[in-house]
Amino acid sequence: MERALQKKRLIKRLTWKKSLLIIGVALVIILLAAGGTAYFLLQKSKPLVNGMISVNGLTAKVEVFRDSHGVPHIEAKSMKDLFMAQGFVTAQDRMFQMDLSRRQASGMLSEVIGEKTIQRDKFFRTLGLRRAAEASYNEYSPEMKQYLEWYAKGVNAYLKQAKKDHTLPIEFMLVGYEPKGWTPIDSLVIGKYMAFDLGGHWEGQAFRYYLMETFSKEKALDLFPGYPKDAPAILEDLETADIDFEKSFADSVIPNFHNGSNNWVVAGSKTESGKPLLANDPHLSLGTPSIWYQSHLKAKDYEVSGVIFAGIPGIIVGHNNTIAWGVTNVGPDVQELYVEKRNPKDPYEFQYLANWEKAEVIDEIIKVKDKTDVNHEVIITRHGPVISEFAHQDKPGTALSLKWTALQPSKELEAVIMMNRSKNWKQFEKALESFHTPAQNFVFASTDGTIAYKANGLIPIRKQDYTSMPVPGWTDQYEWKGYIPWNELPSRVNPENGYLATANNKVTTDSYPYHISDTFAQPYRQQRIVEVLEGKEKLSVKDMQHLQFDQKNKQAEEMLPILIEHVMKEPLTKKEKDVLTILKNWNKVDRKESAAPLIFHIWMDRFSDVLFKDEISDEMLKMFDGREQVVDELIRKANAGQPGPWINEHGGLAKVTQNSFKSMISVISEEYGEDLSKWKWGDFHTLTFEHPLAAIKPLNLLFNPETQAMGGSRVTVGVAGWNRETGDITHGGAWRMVIDMNDPSKAYHVVGPGQSGHVLSPWYDDQAKDWATGKYHVTALDVKDRGNQQKLVLQPSLEK
User: Fold this and answer.
1) Which pick of 41, 132, 456, 703 has the fewest CB atoms within 10 Å?
2) Which is nearest to 557 in space by CA: 596, 504, 609, 530?
3) 702 found inside a domain
4) 640 pLDDT exceeds 50?
5) Are 135 and 13 spatial neighbours (Cβ–Cβ below 8 Å)?
6) Is residue 570 classed as helix, strand or coil in its secondary structure?
7) Structural domain count, the chain
8) For helices 653-672 and 554-567, what crossing angle results, to 10°?
9) What's the pLDDT tens digit per position in 167-218?
10) Which residue has better confidence, 546 or 225?
11) 116: helix, coil or strand?
């Protein structure tokens, strides 16, 4: 009996093992089959870059040469064929990105993503970027409308072919939809989204009003960028406002506060070549694929090279054969929050002077994947859309509406094409008249030796001084009365010092007669740029490249002596002394191999947390516009013997410094251990270039490039902004360019992580390591200087 039972158990075990083996083999076969199918689909959807494709609508053959880094050099005989080809080729490389971009800006993500993005869609439907794009289209010249139509026609030619051949990017299959046809409005709404991404400070106004409502006047004003002259009167006027800020803005989309850029131009008198040098690296979100798409476009009387946002025709930043230009964000106060008084008898009427005015009401229908449609009501007052109610259905007695220059019709693409065609500063500056939003600092260089700068865009002039807070909407006292005259915007040509540079810093002196902004970037990048440009008699392309990747931390130079002095006012443990020794011996360069940058940056973050974390919710902290600048100023004032209430209430500067120091050591020790020799900035500060589908595990393994350790920080010229919780680098100059006007037929570029959005393309992430290590490739206008190329011919189709 026992033997029989043993035999049964043995057979059972063998059967179970056999079953596991069979299941394992089956899973392997399924995975291999699935993997093989996935690889086949991926391979099939790779863009054709060699050979010939027939494109309906072309009038003649177009040659597309992709160089060794996947940059398309598009050569056409007419502007129609050029822009059709640009649309077709960009769609080949970036169609999924283009579709997500237009959907996000238009508030149409939920149609393909599902209910997770409903609140985001409500926000953008309320804001009305697509409405603004539609209004802008009507303002464009017939010529520019034609360019937009041709570009859209090229995109649609690609879509038609890809759908027919089942070669759409695999992301569409994974998400489960096919993209709709492209329209000129889609291109314009992406442009409007970039204006949104570069901000205008409405969230800071809301945050400061929240401060005045929540804390004492003294404590609230301690966190203002400057003292608002009309604050008492405004607060008295707004006493009856009943806005729940945390509830109203819980799901609002706030652009990265650090969105900005570096640019500079050096006169020939200060360069080795004797001609101007120009450098630019716009700072925006990092991801896969890059926000920038690099191209070289050539047709009769039109040739330009540089970058554009995928989905838009032309080149927004770059160069032609005689000029080059770069941009940074001015960061002006071009948004105004108005507190609107609602008629208690009619929720769609708002007071203005002695009357109740009827608001415009738009009923938006948000399509949701696998769910019923969502109806969303948008209310628009005389000032703009009511943005304080998109997250809930309440209609309190007061509401916040937003006035913003980018919601007005504008013709930036008109300016872009004129810039592309310009041959000198006079023509280029004339083109800028049509570039209204976002306001940008343009630097310019020409082969004739001219260097120039202009802060360009619509910047409002207000009846009253700017208050940094929402203003009453029922009176005419706080209306805009116009814009800074174009010929009075800050501008300089051929300065005596031989260079011009901007890094989102204050660009005017206190004597400038118009208000631009109270909130600027921390000054450290600009200080370092000036230090380097003035520190050498003759500058070269290599000097410019090194400066773009420079990791000198000027904030640490200013702040560390203060922090160290105050932390040493109390007895320290051996470990704490060892940590201070690392900081004292630091050369203030944010190298990835060093411990000191890790210690310093975590310390600064913890300093801020000690002050605010227990008193201001995370929802409101995300609206704290200019938080780092404010903390810097609190430290400066306290060190000068003028501590504000936030420092005083936490025990004074020494106490805050000591508490944040201990907190920093605890956090780093928990993550990286007690051995200080193993602490490295690059272990925390890492770069991945996240793909939008990477949040769906395990797709991150397919789509994300390899993670790299990296130096730099938010305050270095070589910007590498990070998520303060995870250390992931999410922000920086995704594209860098340097050009010597001694030979404008070529320029030095890097686009992180690469040109293509197709994961099997050799150009998907081939520039990721170059971007993370400060290397460049040459993009040449002349075919003889390009080396090996892939040639694609787009030919007219016989199809009617």
Assistant:
1) 41
2) 596
3) no
4) yes
5) no
6) coil
7) 2
8) 110
9) 999 999 999 999 999 999 999 999 999 999 987 789 999 999 999 989 999 9
10) 546
11) helix
Is the C-alpha dihedral spanning 160, 163, 167, 172 positive or negative? positive
What does residue 108 show for φ and ψ, rounded to 5 degrees?
A: -130, 25
SS3 267: coil
pLDDT at 396: 79
Q: Which of 627, 646, 679 is the last residue of a domain?
A: 679
Options 106, 110, 261, 517, the catalytic residue: 261
C-beta atoms surrounding 95 within 10 Å: 26
What's the CA gap between 267 and 271, in Å, rounded?
7
Provide CB contacts within 8 A for 599, sequence distance 6+. 579, 582, 583, 664, 668, 679
Which two tokens mark 648?
Answer: 């005083």
Taking 90 as the threshold, does the pLDDT of residue 314 lie above it?
Answer: yes
- Tell me, yes or no, whether 30 lies in a domain: yes
Give the type of residue at 105.
A
Distances (CA, A) of 582 to 596, 680, 712: 6, 12, 18
Look up residue 107 and give its two tokens.
């508030």
**Residue recorded with tokens 């009943």:** 242
Which residues span the domain enclosing 20? 1-44
Q: What is the pLDDT of residues 102-154, one digit of tens each?
A: 999 999 999 999 999 999 999 999 999 999 999 999 999 999 999 999 999 99
The two three-digit tokens of residue 386, written as one number: 């009511």
Structure tokens that stand for 524 in this block: 């450290």
Distances (CA, A) of 512 to 435, 499, 507: 22, 21, 10
CA separation for the pair 296, 306 (Å, rounded): 7
Residue 349: closest CA among 376, 386, 375: 386
**What pLDDT shows up at residue 495?**
97
Contact between 346 and 339 under an 8 Å Cβ cutoff? The reply is no
User: Can you give 341-374 as a three-state secondary structure string?
Assistant: EEECCEEEEEEECCEEEECEEEEEEECCCCCCCE
Q: If we measure between CA atoms, which residue out of 121, 110, 103, 117 comes closest to residue 183?
A: 103
Chain centroid to Cα 128, Å, comes to: 19
Distance from chain centroid for Cα 81:
31
Nearest CA to 548 out of 319, 279, 272, 268 is that of 279
Q: How far apart are CA 173 and CA 288, in angstroms?
A: 18
- CA atoms within 13 A of residue 60's CA, in its CB half-sphere: 9
- Return the ∠ at Cα 174 (arms to 172 and 178), rounded to 5°: 25
Q: DSSP 3-state assignment of 309?
A: strand
> Residue 434 and residue 110: Cα distance in Å, rounded?
34
CA distance 517 to 329: 12
Q: pLDDT band at residue 34, thresholds of 50, 70 and 90?
A: low
- Of 11, 29, 44, the one marking the end of a domain is 44
Tokens found for residue 3: 């033997």
Q: Average pLDDT of the chain?
A: 92
> Is residue 699 packed enough to be buried (19+ CB in 10 Å), middle (13-18) or exposed (0-12)?
middle
> Which two tokens mark 490?
């800050």
Rounded CA separation 35/702 (Å) = 11
Unique residue bearing structure tokens 């393909």: 112
| Paired residues of 456 in beta bridges | 440
Q: What is the mean pLDDT of residues 614-638?
A: 95
261 is catalytic: yes
CA angle 521, 523, 529 (to 5 degrees): 115
In a domain, residue 226? The reply is no
Go through the chain and tell me how many residues it has: 800
- pLDDT of 744-799, one tens digit each? 999 999 999 999 999 999 999 999 999 999 999 999 999 888 888 999 999 999 77
Question: Whole-angstrom Cα distance, residue 170 to residue 42?
Answer: 6
CA separation for the pair 481, 704 (Å, rounded): 49
Q: Is 446 part of any domain? A: no
> Residue 51 corresponds to which tokens in the numbers above?
């050979």
3-state secondary structure 484-528: CCHHHCCEEECCCCCEEEECCCCCCCCCCCCCCCCCCCCCHHHHH
